[in-house]
Amino acid sequence: MVISNPDLEGLELESFNKAARDLKKLTGELQDTVMSIRMVPLAGVFQKMNRIVRDMRKKLNRDVDFVIEGEDTEVDKSIVDNLQDPLMHLVRNCMDHGIGEEDPDARIAAGKPAKGTIKLSAQNASGEVIITVSDDGQGIDPEKVMAKAKKMGLLTKPEMEYTEKEIQNMILLPGFSTNEVVTEFSGRGVGMDVVKANIEKCGGQIVVDSKKGLGTNFIIKIPLTMAIIDGMEITVGDLVFTVPISTIRESFKVEPDQLLNDTGGKEMIMIRGVVYPILRLHEKFIIDTEITNLEDGIILLVETNNKSMCIFADRLIGEQQVVVKPFPKYLSRYNIKGEGLSGCTIMGDGSISLIIDTNQLIG
């Protein structure tokens, strides 16, 4: 607020700017110290999963090893509180569907050890924590999942257009269960959608990766902290947007020979031999701007959930750490939804910047 004060515009204040830089450095160090105090290891949550495996091992009469790795990995306390339920559901799912439904003789015939293994691991990766819950059970049968989704009327496009990964991720849909009979552990269709909702509430993502007959991996990516993100500020018309830096791969100006159109007439861009779709932010959010020619603006290549796309904006302002604020509740009361937006932040000059949710934009 001090540095962006409009009263300072046009003034040459060398000593003031030096003092402001020193203040920014000190407050940054103070912030880092406070954030480190908020960080707690995942060991407490991970160890609680031992009991779930032990209880289910007896009830399902299955011999299972439970392996924990990376329990010393630290995340923000507020995120740890939201992780217990999702991890419990995932471990139960691996025990019940992955290993519980697999015949021990079939395991041996397939060249796998008679004893199943469930693994819970965590690791740090560039400002994120990646938690993996995996089993070496029977894996997900895409045909079985597709048949159930078809029966429940969950398909949004022709059956043949779904990739195997999209079919696997259908198990995260609300009300979905491949169990025909309700048991103590599953079959009600609640659980996996709760997992997805809780992880997204932390600002994270969950991806299902499975091979039929070999096992299933549930990969969770969550930010180290929910409160503060490193963002890149961009302008579209009179509005300022913030894009999380963790999702940006590069930014560049367009050359005319990079542009092309697909068979449906959609704009595409070729970068080092790979073609990406282009999303114009001014069209997505219906914003008036003078910069509509792709060569005049700036392109950001963003990636999330192993999917990529290019977003088009007027210009880059620069990098900024921002405090994420959720949208006010009265917006949802009037059914105003921020599709493609994850929240907002207050800038130094008091104006509001909308934070772009690249996961929604690409999805």
In short:
It contains ten helices and 18 strands. By secondary structure, the chain is α+β, with helices and mostly antiparallel strands. The protein has three domains: 6-39; 42-223, Histidine kinase-like ATPase, C-terminal domain (Heat Shock Protein 90, 2-Layer Sandwich); 228-362, Beta Barrel (OB fold (Dihydrolipoamide Acetyltransferase, E2P)), CATH 2.40.50.180.
CATH topology of the largest domain: Heat Shock Protein 90
Strand residue percentage? 25-35%
Radius of gyration: 24 Å
CATH superfamily membership of the largest domain, which one?
Histidine kinase-like ATPase, C-terminal domain
Helix content: 25-40%
Mean pLDDT: 84
Report the biggest beta sheet as strand number plus sense, adding barrel if it closes: 6 strands, mixed
Distance between the termini: 35 Å
What is the CATH domain class of the largest domain?
Alpha Beta
* Structural class determined from secondary elements: alpha+beta
Report the order of strands and helices. HEHEEHHEEHHHEEEEEEEEHEEEHEEH
Number of strands: 18
Label the CATH architecture of the largest domain: 2-Layer Sandwich
Question: Which residue ranges are poorly predicted, with pLDDT under 50 across at least 5 consecutive positions?
Answer: none
Q: Can you list the strand order of the major beta sheet?
A: 10-14-15-13-12-11
Silhouette = globular
Counted up, domains total 3
The total of helices stands at 10
